[in-house]
C-alpha cells in the first residue's frame, strides 16, 4: 500500500512539473528600447512618455552631441542613448535641483495564462551611466489590470537610487549593466517602466540609460533533473512491485 502511494505521489509530481514547464517565458515588447528610432539629438524619445518637460525632460543623445564632461562619450549599444542632460539639445535651464520622469506602458496580456497562475516574474535589464554625485537615477516597474495601463494594481518594483557607475565627477561616465526583477501579480495585463532622475543640485541631469530588455518568466521552473528524478522514482517503484 505504501509503495502504491509512493508511486502515485511521484506520478503526480512529474505531471505537475511537466505542466509547469509548459508555461514558457516571453520577451517584453518594449518600444524603442535602445533609442535608435530617433534622430539624435532629439527632445523626448519615440514610444516613451515624458512627464516633465523643458530642462527637466529627457533627450536622445549620440556621440558628438553637446554634453557635460561627466557624460558618456558613446552609446552602450547602437548609436543613440537616453540622456537627462538638457545640453544635448540646448534646452533651457529649469533651475538648480529637480526631478525628471518618463515612462512606457508595455502590454503583457499575451502572457495572461502564465501570470494568472500566480507563478511568474518579470526581469528587466538596461545599461546605466552616472558620474555626477549630485544626480541619482531610479527605475520602477508598476503593474496594471488593463492593457492601457490606467488601472493600477498597487504593486510595484523599484531599484531605489542606483549606485553611480563612477564617482570621479570629472571624466566620461562608464556604462554598467543594471537589472530589476520580481513577482508579477495575478491579473496584471500591462506594466509601466518608469525612469526617474533626481537632482539635488545643478540644472542638468547627468544620468543616462540604454539598451532595455526584459521578459516574463515562469517560476519555479522545474529542471530536467527534477523530471528525471521523478521518472527514475516511478521506474524503481515499478521494478520493486514486480
Low-confidence stretches: 5-21
Classified in CATH, the superfamily is Galactose-binding domain-like
Secondary-structure element string: HEEEEEEHEEEEEEH
- Which radius of gyration do the C-alpha atoms yield? 23 Å
List how many beta strands DSSP finds: 12
Tell me the name of the CATH class: Mainly Beta
Class derived from helix and strand content: alpha+beta
Q: Can you name the CATH architecture?
A: Sandwich
How would you describe what is shown here?
The structure is a single chain. With 242 residues, the chain is α+β, with helices and mostly antiparallel strands. It contains three helices and twelve strands, in the order H-E-E-E-E-E-E-H-E-E-E-E-E-E-H. The strands form two sheets. Strands 1, 2, 4, 5, 7, 10 and 12 form a seven-stranded antiparallel β-sheet that branches. The protein has a five-stranded antiparallel β-sheet with strand order 3-6-11-8-9, with no helix packed on it. Helix 1 runs antiparallel to helix 3. About 7% of the residues have low confidence.
What's the layout of helices and strands?
Layout: H1 2-21, E1 26-27, E2 42-43, E3 49-50, E4 59-62, E5 80-84, E6 98-107, H2 112-116, E7 120-130, E8 135-144, E9 152-158, E10 176-183, E11 190-199, E12 205-218, H3 224-241
Antiparallel strand pairs: 1-12, 2-4, 3-6, 4-5, 5-12, 6-11, 7-10, 7-12, 8-9, 8-11
Brief summary of the model shown:
This protein is of the alpha+beta class. The protein is built from 3 helices and 12 strands, in the order H-E-E-E-E-E-E-H-E-E-E-E-E-E-H.
Amino acid at each position: 500500500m505504501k509503495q502504491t502511494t509512493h508511486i502515485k505521489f511521484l506520478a503526480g509530481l512529474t505531471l505537475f512539473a511537466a505542466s509547469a514547464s509548459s508555461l514558457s517565458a516571453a520577451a517584453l515588447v518594449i518600444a524603442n528600447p535602445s533609442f535608435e528610432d530617433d534622430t539624435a539629438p532629439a527632445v523626448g524619445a519615440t514610444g516613451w512618455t515624458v512627464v516633465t518637460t523643458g530642462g527637466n525632460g529627457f533627450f536622445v543623445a549620440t556621440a558628438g552631441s553637446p554634453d557635460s564632461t561627466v557624460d558618456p562619450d558613446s552609446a552602450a549599444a547602437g548609436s543613440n542613448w537616453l540622456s537627462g542632460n538638457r545640453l544635448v539639445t540646448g534646452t533651457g535651464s529649469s533651475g538648480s535641483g529637480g526631478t525628471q520622469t518618463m515612462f512606457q506602458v508595455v502590454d503583457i496580456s499575451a502572457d495572461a495564462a502564465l501570470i494568472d497562475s500566480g507563478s511568474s516574474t518579470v526581469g528587466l535589464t538596461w545599461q546605466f551611466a552616472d558620474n555626477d554625485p549630485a544626480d541619482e537615477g531610479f527605475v520602477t516597474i508598476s503593474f496594471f489590470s488593463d492593457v492601457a495601463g490606467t488601472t493600477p494594481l498597487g504593486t510595484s518594483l523599484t531599484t531605489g537610487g542606483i549606485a553611480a557607475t563612477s564617482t570621479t565627477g570629472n571624466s566620461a561616465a562608464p556604462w554598467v549593466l543594471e537589472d530589476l526583477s520580481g513577482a508579477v501579480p495575478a491579473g496584471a495585463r500591462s506594466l509601466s517602466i518608469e525612469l526617474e532622475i533626481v537632482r539635488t543640485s545643478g540644472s542638468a541631469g547627468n544620468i543616462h540609460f540604454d539598451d532595455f530588455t526584459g521578459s516574463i518568466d515562469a517560476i519555479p521552473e522545474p529542471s530536467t533533473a527534477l523530471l528525471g528524478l521523478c521518472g527514475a522514482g516511478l521506474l524503481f517503484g515499478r521494478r520493486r512491485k514486480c
